[in-house]
Amino acid sequence: MTYNIYRTTNDPYFSPGSIPYDTTSSATYTEPGVIGDPNTNYYYVVTSVEDATGTESALSERVGEFDFALVPGEDTTDYKYNFVALALNVDSIADADSLASYVGGVYMVIRYDATTQGITYWLPDYSSGTNFPAEVGQPYFLYARDTAPTVVTLVGSVPMKQSTIFSLTPGSGPGESLS
């Protein structure tokens, strides 16, 4: 059995063409040199091909790598805010603590809750605040130390198309237009 690898850049929901990007007989696939560029993110789907008939299976789950740039602090007393969102389902990121650990060099993770109009914070080094769930599609502020990387790469599965949907409704009070 062989596997057809279909790949594109910056379009997680692409429709594969008729010619695969690559083929392999291995159940694992590694492509060196694709991580680390916040301007180019790569997405993949795979099909299996029955050798005897050449019949191609349905598409696999979509996976990808998503890079985002960080601005670390400039010295041990300087921290910088960075706005990030979880673009992929990463198995090892479940909450604020694991997000901070995955990124590295994070002093604090902050989440804004539009429903309560408030913020929740987590200080990993002090186990202080609320270690809230980290969810794909949600935005977070990372307060980065000078030890934080300048680029973080998420590797994981692409969420189902339109799985994160926001409903905006008119506000009811004076000066409110959306809530």
Give a verbal description of the structure.
The termini are far apart. The longest helix has 8 residues, at 96-103. This protein has one helix at 96-103, and strands at 2-9, 22-24, 42-49, 63-69, 80-85, 106-113, 118-123, 128-129, 139-144, 151-157. The chain is elongated, with a radius of gyration of 20 Å. With 179 residues, the chain is mainly beta. The chain has 1 helix and 10 strands. It has a 5-stranded antiparallel β-sheet, with no helix packed on it. It has a 5-stranded antiparallel β-sheet with strand order 5-9-6-7-8, covered by helices on one side.
Question: Descriptors for this entry?
Answer:
5-stranded antiparallel β-sheet; mainly beta; 4% helix; 179 residues; 1 helix
Order of helices and strands, N to C? EEEEEHEEEEE
What is the approximate shape? elongated
**Separation of termini?**
53 Å
Total number of helices: 1
Number of strands: 10
Strand order of the largest sheet: 2-1-3-4-10
| Estimated structural class | mainly beta
Mean pLDDT: 90
Helix content: under 10%
Tell me the strand percentage band: 25-35%
Poorly predicted segments: none
| Overall radius of gyration | 20 Å
Please describe the biggest sheet, giving its number of strands, its sense, and whether it closes into a barrel: 5 strands, antiparallel
